[in-house]
Design brief:
The protein is built from 25 helices and 16 strands. The chain is of the alpha+beta class and 632 residues long. The strands form four sheets. It has a six-stranded mixed sheet with strand order 7-12-15-14-9-8, covered by helices on one side. Strand 8, helix 25 and strand 9 form a beta-alpha-beta unit. It starts with a helix and ends with a strand. The model has no long low-confidence stretch (mean pLDDT 94).
Length: 632
Amino acid sequence: MMLEKLKKFTPKNLASLIIFALIYFYLLYIFKPSLVFLNTTVTGGDTGSHNYVFYYLKKTFPSIHAWSHDWYYGFPFLYFYPPLLYVFGILLSYFIADNISFKLITLLGTFILPLTSYLCFRILNKNSIPEIAGILSLFFLFLEQYTIYGGNIPSTLAGEFSYSFSFSLFWLFIALMKKGTEENRHLILNTLLLSLMILSHPIPVMVSLVVMPFFLFLNFKKNLFYIIKVYVLAFIFTSWWSFPFLFYLDYSSPMVWKKFIRVSDIFPLSLVPLKIFALVSAVYGFLKRDKSIMLLLFIGVINLFFYLLLDNSKIWNTRFLPFFTMSCILMSTYFIGIILKNMKHNFFFLLLIVIGSILFINSKLKFIPFWIKWNYEGFERKQSWVEVKALFDYLKTLPFGRVMWEYTPEYGKFGTPRVLELIPMFSGKPTVEGLLIESALSAPFHFIIQAETTFTPTTPNFGFRYPSFNMKKAVEHMRFMGIRYFIAYTDEVKKEADKVLPKIGKVGNFAIYEIPQAKLIEPLFDFQVKSEKNNWKSQAIEWFIKDELSKPIIFSEKKIEKPKIKNIKCQLIKFAPDEITFYTEGVRIPHIVKVSYFPKWKVEGGEGPYFVSPSFMVVIPQREVVKIKWEY
């Protein structure tokens, strides 16, 4: 048996092994295992904030869905962000350190792309040289033209590692779907691949859907039934996550993306030769009616169409550009393969191509090696870590309360400008800014306050104009939103904060202030009631911008009476991820609970919860002690 396998092992197989050994040797050389396996907290861009998601999932595991108070006044944890890679990391962390397991999952998409590219082309064209696809995938991975769109190494380092994993699986899935529709095979394998994509990132899944008409055009009746089976089965297998995602989607934040287009992103100089080869391949494939090339061409054209035309959408148009780029690279593989096929000793030339490609890519690198070192050496290896670590330690000593902080790019020296989003992880205090913006119904209101507390706001687009810096107004908003502490860093903001807030501490360059009378639960004496639920999110945003804080809007079909008694004592008893308990003298008087509204909160000892502007809950106690419980 072993001898038979050895006899089948040809020089071609040996060349393939050498090629992939060189590819992965180069990837390991760039990513430095000595840094990846260093037990430090990975940082850089959004990646640093993803540490919290991993940290919190390990606390709730094996439960995936949960509630977290730690970001954005509370948000439904992993309802609107795919959990697969974090789950992989959690399982791995039972054998190795948490920090190392998390680092490893951030690299999965990058390391499997050469392999899935090879398999994709091997399936699409049996007469091709699929090793070329694996080699040329390096040109995409090491593309430094863009750093956040997804798929390439800079995007992965910026935090798009889930996208990268799903993106890498996409090319194998599309190739197997072609083979599956032609031969009526691979149903389970295609279902599995699609399920992994769904649980990793939604964009490649959306792209796969818009590619399916290509297969319907080839054979509508036969392929329609196969496609339906794959997508229905994948939805069933992932329904534990995908169904809640779709069902509760209305309770995510209403983010809007403006399109961003650069010609240099479409035609990076480093890829111009490959784009030319891709064009030749497209023409040749079209004339020869080569279905594989026409499939790649369709993927490229449809994604370029979305990139150029998608605007004011919940999906950023740039997310589709990596599919155009990669489809061009795979089409260029076809052209290069035709040339090599007609050459003697073509695998010798393949070795020259892989070595030449690696040397060329390495000579053109500008920032990737530095960024890899910056990320994987971790927060703890930064010279400024001592200062921010001292802040985290100081916050631990304070009584419980939400923390708001001035945003400034100066925090980048700590590892990422988002470093203070890890306050819950390092200090045990909730903060009002985090990573998963679309997951948080309260996110728009946070960023309004952020604009009032910093001269360098991030201003994500929710479809409204942000206010200018105004610390006095910010204090009113923070008090209303139940924020107890504010942290300033720059001299300009500290100067303004000193005028309106009592300073309670100083750590390095950080100044810590306390907002008086900031409460998480209090009786609501004046309000308006609206039974109309259409556009309730936009109405709440408009109410907040108009600064009508004294008269919140309760959205309820029930008639709610305004209280006549004003002097009511109310005390928070418990504030846990799955339970909020409070005591009140105001039975049958509405109380505002300053936690983001979500339908899975249920009240014991009262009515509600009802949605109240800006994004909180109102309950009407029927007894002195009221519990609001999270329904798992």
